[in-house]
Amino acid sequence: MHVIAVTGMPGAGKELAAELAQRRGWPVLSMGELVRAETRRRGLPADPQHVAETATALRKERGPGAWAELLLPLLEEQAAGGARTVLVDGVRNVAEVEVLRRALGGEFVLVGIAAEAAIRHERLIGRGRSDDVPAKAWLEERDRRELGYGLGEVLATADHTLRNESTKAAFREALERLLDEIGGA
User: If phi over 0 gives left and psi between -120 and 50 gives alpha, with beta otherwise, what is residue 11?
Assistant: First the structure.
């Protein structure tokens, strides 16, 4: 089974990658959804503050690769179910990459998606997800938190990197070509 993990700052375009994978019939597993689910499991609302606190708390409790370790049984389920390619949305730090590379070897590919902060922030304001707050200061704080997790280093070590600063159609086309290349049609 091939596992394509997409990484990038909030609003860079990971959700479009997930949509395109789903259209291909590929299962999509979201690291962010794992965090939101764990936040709710802990009896907390899935608002920005509690999601961030849960993400950090689990890393402190179980180590920096904890979220990837929680993902591995889900990947095993997908493999047992016959999935040939799975897209993982939202790897955040090098320890998570190491957990996935160790478990999956050459079947793991990391794709970085990059976009300037102003462009990403504009996208996030219109997204409307429970852990999004349309305020510039909050968005800047979220960027600092993501970089604090090690996301910048993950982006720098991606196997492939796409910039998403033009039109949605242009990015979709570039992303489709890359997914064809690394995951099959």
Answer: left
Q: Is residue 6 part of a domain?
A: no
User: pLDDT for 26-59, tens place per residue?
Assistant: 999 999 999 999 999 999 999 988 998 999 999 9
pTM: 0.88
- Overall number of domains in the chain: 1
Long-range contacts of range 20-25, CB-CB < 8 Å, 24 or more positions apart?
A: 20/172, 20/175, 20/176, 20/179, 21/85, 21/87, 21/179, 21/183, 24/85, 24/179, 24/183, 24/185
Both tokens of 13, joined, read 């375009």
The residue behind tokens 């730090």 is 93
Tokens of 69: 């370790």
DSSP for 7-51, please give it.
EESTTSSHHHHHHHHHHTT--EEEHHHHHHHHHHHTT---SHHHH
Its domain, for residue 148, covers 13-183
